[in-house]
Amino acid sequence: MLGGTNFVGPHLVQAALERGHTVTLFNRGHTNPDLFPRVERLKGDRYPDRNHGLSALETTRTWDAVIDTWQAEPGCVDLTARLLAHRTERYVYVSSIATYRSFRGIGITETGPMIDAKEHIASFDGSLDYRVRKRAAEQAVERSFGGAATLLRCTSIVGFHRGGAASEQVAGYWVPRFLAREPLLAPDDPTAVIQLIDVRDMAEFAIRAIEQDFGGAYNMVGPEKPLPLRDYLLALNQATGHRSQIVWVAPAFLLERGVRPFDDVPNWIPADDPEPGFYRISNSKSLAHGLRYWPLLKSISDAIGAELLQVPVDGIASEPEGPGLRRARERELIEEWVAHQG
């Protein structure tokens, strides 16, 4: 396991241990170093010029599989893939649906058109776009492992962070609003759906892929059918104790006032969006290979984290760091909508 102690990694390690496998961790020893004290650790760095680089892996040792979740410079993935190609039977890379070229179509399968990032396979350019980084890493693994490469293309991954924090995808925008005990704006759009994957579901599938020798790409999206955005937000509200009133606003009203789907209201992609397929990815291949899902409310509750629910949030919480409406603008829109309703 390359890494293994930050969000996705611990769930992969835990899944392997629970199924009776022996695990070796390769990491810097900086992030959550107390996790898995009885698991073998090899100390090093994905960057070859830091902290002895990959020297701990430059031996004759062999492994049945390697699991990699790296999302930074693809050159780091290329180095480990080439180094372990003849000493490891399978390379599992946790990738992203962002590697698909376009989301104009509904039901994109694993054979859908991909970004071509071959020229960046060995790159250490930190300014590369996330989509390019992930696709270049995929291609690096495929180049070294061929049919022994397993690519798990994930949508938003939710779940409890073993380090004590909720996953960014869930907590970043919506949860602070649901905890703030004040009205929050949501699009009243029955066409909008969302896909996500519980980190435990992805981890269990990854270990199954190693055990049963699954090669190729698999879309890690759930639940079994795309989830209406409205149901997702209602589940978040329930998980946070119904602290806030959801103000359902007509999509046309928001669009007329310059509110941008997905950018200003995260997770909102209307059915008539130019790329409606982002949350309508096919999971049929993964389901056929045994992908299973935790109950939605359990996934969301665990993602938020028990300690987060205890945070006393009164009035306006902090602004989101990433995409999303500023709170002052959200309040203005709610007031306009209420007045518009008369």
The class by helix and strand makeup works out as alpha/beta
N/C terminus separation: 59 Å
User: How much is the radius of gyration in Å?
Assistant: 21 Å
Tell me the series of helices and strands, N- to C-terminal: HEEEHEHEEHHEEHEEHEHHHHH
Helix content: 25-40%
* Main sheet attributes: strand count, strand direction, barrel closure: 4 strands, parallel
Strand order of the largest sheet: 3-4-5-9
| Count of runs of 4 or more consecutive helical residues | 12
Brief overview:
It is built from twelve helices and eleven strands.
Please tell me about this protein's structure:
With 342 residues, this protein is of the alpha/beta class. The protein is built from twelve helices and eleven strands. A four-stranded parallel β-sheet has the order 3-4-5-9, sandwiched between helices. The protein has a three-stranded mixed β-sheet with strand order 6-8-10. Strand 3, helix 2 and strand 4 form a beta-alpha-beta unit. The longest helix is centred in the middle third of the chain and has 16 residues, at 130-145. The radius of gyration is 21 Å and the shape is elongated. Mean pLDDT is 90; it is low at 164-170.
Element layout with pairings:
Layout (H helix, E strand, L loop, with lengths): L7 H11 L5 E4 L12 E4 L19 E6 L5 H11 L3 E9 L33 H16 L3 E6 L1 E3 L9 H4 L2 H6 L4 E4 L5 E6 H13 L4 E5 L1 E7 H11 L6 E4 L1 H6 L27 H5 L7 H9 L1 H4 L17 H15 L1
Parallel strand pairs: 1-2, 3-4, 4-5, 5-9, 6-8, 7-11
Antiparallel strand pairs: 8-10
Helix pairs in contact: 1-6, 2-3, 7-10
